[in-house]
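User: Could you go from structure to sequence for me? I need the amino acid at each position, not a summary. Structure tokens:
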């Protein structure tokens, strides 16, 4: 099923669990704001979060008739205030009016046409009828009378123009406990009528939270796809390896949405990139769809449990947690077949040093990988450990354990039965030339010869060698060789 190991079923969030989470983590006030696009717009705008400009809010059929539709030249969106799943939304690109006597209002109404994002034409009278259906509650999630929202259409970021001509792509970010836990890039298609909704036939691409690079793809309710058409290059391109611009700003915007709306502990945020204004929030959803798990090939439930008891100190801390806990290691453009590298029980890794920090190490000179400053550290492979760990003293000398660098504290019980809290920090290192961004335990390894232990979480894509012949001699030679190579870079 979509290439997913069914043994990992318990890691996935089901509809029943999603609905329980919706009620348990989201207060009545928070749900009420999220269910109203108008209230959401007001709250987010007050908090300084970018939202599309409101043109008009229409409450009655009389107001539909009174509103001056002819003042709209184009680039606007009509949507139900309490709509759900993309239903009832009309996206207009431009107005097309035949040469008629401007004083004859009846002729103008009859001849005025609007071109929608999918290329189809719609008349002014059809728009009015559609708005009346919205007011009558046809698209309301509660089946009750609703209001019409008319707002400015986002000007698509140039990078996305080549990906689709059918609508405006957006990025959905799931935020839980003020921490982004999953994201996907939603691409409208002709089948979805220019709407970025997977249930209507749009394309969804999973996104690596660490880098903003796309990973896997599906269309509709779960059909896996490998390639999409690039209108700029005039050819099919892989769904993996697409870099989303302004990625950190997008994650920060999603976190700010949760901070702005009281009582929303679990929500989906739909962000679009305006070519002038940057990340702009279309809407928030207190009960987001679950297809995001399929295009990420990962379960929301497992990720949410991981951050359940973590307290994010700031927006920057929230983004750092997402990066180090849920990065999928797509640091370069992902290839279908990656060459597997073999690692020995003892290896030399290059650990990144924080910018501006001077490490207190006498025997290990500061080297460079590109523009990144690194220090070589001897590491031991331990497949029995899940997470990697670093010696506290070494971490302090490398400037990795200052309070702002600690992601969170992990509670554990020692072999003597004592309860302790162990810091978990974000670390970037290179193993066999491969960049790894991960969360690492800080432990006391003073009595051990190796100050860095590599757990199996950070060994994905490597083949572990069982050989250990003359490891010490080989390691010294490798250290000298690595130092020469890094200095020349």
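Assistant: Here is the amino acid at each position, in order:
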């Amino acid at each position: 099923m979509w290439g997913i190991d069914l043994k990992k079923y318990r890691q996935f969030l089901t509809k029943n669990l999603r609905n329980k989470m919706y009620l348990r983590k989201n207060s009545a006030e928070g749900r009420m704001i999220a269910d109203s696009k108008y209230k959401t717009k007001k709250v987010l705008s007050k908090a300084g979060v970018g939202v599309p400009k409101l043109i008009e809010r229409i409450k009655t059929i009389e107001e539909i008739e009174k509103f001056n539709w002819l003042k709209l030249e184009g680039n606007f969106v009509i949507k139900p205030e309490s709509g759900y799943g993309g239903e009832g939304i009309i996206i207009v690109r431009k107005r097309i009016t035949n040469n008629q006597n401007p004083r004859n209002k009846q002729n103008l109404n009859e001849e005025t046409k609007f071109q929608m994002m999918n290329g189809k034409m719609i008349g002014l009278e059809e728009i009015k009828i559609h708005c009346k259906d919205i007011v009558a509650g046809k698209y309301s999630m509660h089946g009750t009378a609703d209001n019409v929202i008319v707002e400015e259409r986002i000007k698509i970021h140039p990078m996305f123009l080549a990906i689709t001509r059918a609508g405006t792509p957006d990025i959905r970010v799931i935020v839980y406990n003020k921490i982004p836990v999953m994201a996907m890039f939603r691409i409208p298609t002709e089948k979805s009528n220019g709407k970025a909704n997977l249930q209507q036939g749009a394309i969804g691409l999973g996104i690596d939270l660490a880098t903003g690079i796309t990973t896997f793809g599906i269309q509709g309710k779960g059909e896996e796809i490998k390639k999409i058409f690039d209108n700029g290059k005039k050819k099919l391109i892989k769904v993996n390896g697409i870099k989303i611009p302004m990625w950190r700003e997008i994650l920060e915007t999603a976190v700010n949405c949760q901070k702005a709306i009281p009582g929303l502990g679990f929500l989906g945020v739909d962000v679009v990139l305006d070519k002038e204004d940057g990340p702009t929030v279309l809407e928030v959803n207190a009960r987001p769809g679950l297809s995001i798990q399929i295009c990420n090939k990962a379960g929301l439930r497992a990720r949410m449990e991981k951050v359940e008891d973590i307290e994010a100190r700031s927006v920057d801390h929230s983004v750092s947690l997402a990066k180090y806990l849920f990065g999928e290691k797509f640091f370069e453009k992902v290839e279908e077949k990656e060459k597997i590298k073999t690692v020995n029980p003892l290896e030399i890794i290059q650990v990144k040093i924080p910018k501006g920090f001077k490490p207190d190490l006498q025997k290990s000179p500061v080297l460079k990988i590109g523009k990144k400053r690194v220090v070589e550290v001897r590491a031991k492979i331990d497949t029995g450990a899940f997470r990697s760990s670093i010696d506290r003293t070494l971490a302090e000398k490398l400037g990795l354990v200052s309070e702002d660098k600690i992601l969170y504290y992990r509670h554990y019980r020692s072999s003597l039965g004592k309860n302790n809290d162990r810091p978990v920090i974000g670390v970037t290192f290179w193993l066999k030339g491969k960049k790894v961004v991960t969360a690492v335990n800080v432990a006391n390894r003073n009595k051990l010869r190796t100050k860095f232990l590599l757990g199996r979480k950070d060994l994905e894509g490597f083949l572990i060698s069982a050989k250990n012949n003359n490891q010490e001699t080989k390691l010294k030679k490798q250290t000298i060789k690595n130092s020469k190579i890094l200095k020349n870079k």
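One structural detail worth keeping in mind: The longest helix spans residues 471-488.
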